[in-house]
Amino acid sequence: MFAEAGVPAAVVLPRSTADVVAVMQTASRHGVPVVPRGGGSGLVGAANAVDGVITLVTTRMDAVLEVSATDRLAVVQPGVVTRALRDAVAGLGLYYPPDPASYDWCTLGGNLAMDSGGLCCVKYGVTSDHVLGLEVVLADGRVLRTGRRTVKGVAGYDLTRLFVGSEGTLGVITEATLSLRPAPATPVTLVASFASTAQTGRVVQRVVTEGLVPSMLEVMDRTCIRAVDDLMRSGLDRDAHALLMAQSDAGGEAAVAEIAALTRICTDEGADLVHSTDDAGEADLLLAARRMAWPALQRLGSGLLLDDVAVPRGRIADFMDGCQQVAVRAGLVVAVVGHAGDGNMHPTVVFDQTDADQRTRAHEAFDAILALGLELGGTITGEHGVGRIKTEWLERELGPVSMSVHRAIKDALDPQGLLNPGTMFRRAAVGDLPAVASAQA
Amino acid sequence: MFAEAGVPAAVVLPRSTADVVAVMQTASRHGVPVVPRGGGSGLVGAANAVDGVITLVTTRMDAVLEVSATDRLAVVQPGVVTRALRDAVAGLGLYYPPDPASYDWCTLGGNLAMDSGGLCCVKYGVTSDHVLGLEVVLADGRVLRTGRRTVKGVAGYDLTRLFVGSEGTLGVITEATLSLRPAPATPVTLVASFASTAQTGRVVQRVVTEGLVPSMLEVMDRTCIRAVDDLMRSGLDRDAHALLMAQSDAGGEAAVAEIAALTRICTDEGADLVHSTDDAGEADLLLAARRMAWPALQRLGSGLLLDDVAVPRGRIADFMDGCQQVAVRAGLVVAVVGHAGDGNMHPTVVFDQTDADQRTRAHEAFDAILALGLELGGTITGEHGVGRIKTEWLERELGPVSMSVHRAIKDALDPQGLLNPGTMFRRAAVGDLPAVASAQA
């Protein structure tokens, strides 16, 4: 979609909490808005500058301050790259699950601000499920500590969860205490192809109702399958309408049993092909198709609008079919890739950016997909956030009472409205900028 | 501890959200405070009346409105008894994990308000880990909906988590959408006894560092062991200084392997006795000792002060030993029972209520245990909440910045200060009541 991208008055790269305090004290004294920014991998423009702001980039605050195997936690600064934390704890047999697609370059601060997800969510939840506590610099420069080092604790309001996912509108996260898990077993991987999306929808439904908890359950539609095959020549079944990819990291016999149950369900529902493997190399090859979906789609058109709708798991097939109806009505291609296991789908509208008519139709299709998601009992954002591009849709999803509670909390914590103006809340037409296309990561 | 218990001006028992709206509209129009109350099983006085308030009891809003196997969720009214939801979903092979000790009579509304825990937390988390969305009546009578039916979603602030655990100070929860899990396998159970608490501390530490995730891991000290044995004549090892109880519900071979690993760790650390069983009846007998700990302790003294401290898991042995030092200094018995797996300990100070000197020393001991918890990096409440009895300790744990953020949020959502006065926040000396002892559930 379109996200404003202005020119900041200054870009600061703090190295410490004290630096951030100084920035916020100066900003609040002079009434200058501040846009916090991590690795810049976000998809909704939440870290884009607005003219005249201070952009506060946290990438130099990149220390892993502590890893405790005894308490199964890590204390990190916000600029640590997500992958770097994974690597830092792997030697101790520990595991930090959240794995956004950009985890090679996105930062934990950004993950926290947006409450990022990834492929692991179906079993392990999202970023907020792994946060024990935060240090946050408030709009006026005061330093707040939330949460604790213990796994349990109910002293006071859950401020940790309030700041996680608040998209930089309530404070600047300067430190986080993250819970870790034991490293999972090497997964067993399954791939299945189907002649219809309805079949994959039924498979997901049965996975849920039969009580399976795979560690990954992804789906790609025919457009994605063909785009990936065009790019990689990987011999995918180009006639399939949907490809399902699953993993179980339950370990040993349990994983084998879980994948066997999945195989049975896929076969029952008429899969054209089901293949599973416990060989890590072969699994990587199979999953490369999923990982390459976005690059492959980028070759299909000069413009891509990546959507991010989550629907109840029983409505996945309805949603995928609805997306194809949207595509037909718009006369455009809509490719669907998604985290089927948790109902978080990423339909992508493909169009020619140089064609004004296609641009209009693409945005109409993008909106129609959001409306479809809400109609099916879903949400306008499963994991990418609201940012600048979905503020009106947020109002539509939440309604006036919730929006007024949101504003009351925002006003209580940031009365001058300094933090990340235009994100989450619509701005009152200040310095309207020409819209700039920024559709990809 | 001591919790105020006043006389309400009125007690209302609404049957619907509309009834609650009417109560809150009337209350806000006339400036009358409202104390929400569920089953009344809370341990910190959070649902106690204050003179002149309206007590709003939700027990007649007791419908399970929906159970969806497809979306693995339930929609409930707040007055549903926790156990009743468990029973309602069991037939579908589903499971609602939170299991406070009072789950036969406490209500989900109270669980939500307090973010209750239980024995399951070590593997499955607390109440807030199972909430997808809420309906809340705000102080002014407006109806707010938070969250969603999808498992993933990041549209707006996490208001769901803000209301869960807010102890009735921000709104009245009138409906909740709760996520369910597949029913776990029948557990394998282990009991081990030790000659020192330090040994059990080391066992817990190794469980954490070796990556085991039992579905239960409880500890009892010698005072509890003897009290339970006196009550039940169950042949417990009266010379043991600590008894550890664990379960694995990983299923089949995985559960056997997990309990075998636990057995090895217990033996390594010098357990006097380790016994495990996959027989459900025998397991019930073994666990009866844990369930009877509180009734057994109630026979030891006319007064009991039940504490609720969570410490980092590496500090459990330090905490248990520290409690014994507190007991020696106070010249009283302090019995420790606890959810060792998540570091949430319940030391109980036993005293004679008719003895003024013992009462004083008991309260000093209670406070000394909270101070010890904070000193070890823990929290003053792992699962019981702040209520009326720990408001000063909340300030001590959170500090002035966090308290001012708490007050800003409270003022933003309840500007008249109508909801649950005296809970979580200290009251400005209004109608000081004589303190009433209410130390137990």
TrEMBL record, chains A, B:
InterPro entries linked: FAD-bd_oxidored_4_C, FAD-bd_PCMH, FAD-bd_PCMH-like_sf, FAD-bd_PCMH_sub2, FAD-linked_Oxase-like_C, FAD-linked_OxidoTrans_Type4, Oxid_FAD_bind_N, Vanillyl_alc_oxidase_C-sub2
A family per Pfam: FAD-oxidase_C
One GO MF term: FAD binding
Cofactor(s) of this protein: FAD
Cytoplasm among keywords: no
Gene3D superfamilies, per database record: 3.30.465.10, 3.30.70.2740, Vanillyl-alcohol Oxidase, Chain A, domain 4
Keyword Transcription regulation: no
All residue ranges annotated as the FAD-binding PCMH-type domain in the record: 4-183
Keywords on record: FAD, Flavoprotein, Oxidoreductase
Similarity comment: Belongs to the FAD-binding oxidoreductase/transferase type 4 family.
Protein name: FAD-binding protein
The organism of origin for this protein: Goekera deserti
Native organism taxonomy: Bacteria, Bacillati, Actinomycetota, Actinomycetes, Geodermatophilales
